[in-house]
């Protein structure tokens, strides 16, 4: 901007100093200053017009910059909470927008949170929306040909076999028994130790250890012991975590760059290579040992003893009638560990965080638990309380509260598909072959159009039938935390069972109080971890507190606690 006072002085000085050398120089200097100011003004104007004209190119409400596309908006979204940023844009754009990334990146995609589009891509036109080559390339080093990363027949074969296994009575028995053992002989003692020593704990870390031990039992039939006293550092668990973190980085790095870095064995690619090597060594060791064990067992023993996925797949043949390769067996197990490890534990962490600020919900959960156990005919107050499978089924309010936590904080916040042939979404979005489609599960929970004006509130009641208070499920295309259609989460029932069992066992014994001012933000990862974990203090429940809910008197053998 021109300063008007200088302009005024300029005119008066130049006119009053004609013939005066000093005045001449002064006036020249001031003219020079004026020239500079005009130049500055022109320059500012050019920059302003350039910026303005570039910014004028808006698409879906977001500025599109030359070369960079919408990247600057994404980067500013990343500074705060990326999932909130996506939610805001989607709410603004009625549920779908097209993201234009830099020309050199792989970020161009269509982002949607419209249930009609989700039903279309997950069910109606399922074959037209595979995981695709981009996803396979990006996660291939870690996941290989496992279920998460496979399409078509390769996926179908694994899905079918695993589905039969997951729904078999024996398998359910194995998983419930191993969970019971882990909760009662590892989780609760670790929590009790924290209470007795008055120490805060990171409950997300504890729950991750619980589900890691549990899923390794299911997948490999081995117990890594992450939740043993002292919470030891388990190299396999660490390698697994490092490998998933480094893999996620590939999604936000241009493909050509991470491929060159991988070739040169630098940075996160070096870390990825090393951690995958450690994961592979662990898997190879387990596979070798299992093969040896099976080779010296009779057929009858084999059937009786092991029900883990590794043993099941070892007994099968591929499409050529040959046993599966060790590499493929490794891929199957690694994929199941990824599927079952973080998802349930982060869901429980967000649940405990929400509960901390919703005491009325905690009261209702407690009332429900107590009502259920008071119906036991053989309730023995002297023995530690272990919830029974049939009791878990009756916990409708807890089921609703966990679903509500998952609606607001889905363990998989965004998911990905690729368009196989040109298509049009029900909302009219045109999709060219090869387009990447991101479905924003986190954003869906925040869309008024989907959940109503109270969508951001934590209200388990929205999941209950008014007439009898029983749990009421929702369409998988509106509540997509477990995916939907043919690729619906295979572990959904088990996950609910596991979460209800662990949460009920904890809440019955302790108040879980989040440490004051503990920062809670999601981490950018495949699964929605809390970036700083969840620091909590546990407070033992008094017997008198539960008395108001129980019809029967609980006599605790310990002084003031609940078994
Ligand atoms: C709260 C817990 C869980 C949540 C929110 C959850 C969510 C999901 C989601 C969103 C998918 C789709 C992923 C994709 O295709 O990109 C999925 C798939 C899958 N989940 Fe879960 N999951 C949970 C727990 C589990 C557990 C405990 C297991 C097994 C032990 C499991 C096994 C699987 C498998 C095998 C698939 C792949 C299905 C397929 O592609 O056909 N999940 N899950």
UniProtKB/TrEMBL annotation:
GO annotation, biological process: lipid metabolic process
Gene Ontology molecular-function annotations: heme binding; iron ion binding; monooxygenase activity; oxidoreductase activity, acting on paired donors, with incorporation or reduction of molecular oxygen
GO CC aspect terms: membrane
Topology term for the membrane: Single-pass membrane protein
Main location: membrane
Binding sites annotated in the UniProt record for heme: 489
Keywords assigned by UniProt, alphabetized: Heme, Iron, Membrane, Metal-binding, Monooxygenase, Oxidoreductase, Transmembrane, Transmembrane helix
Protein name: Cytochrome P450
Organism: Salix dunnii
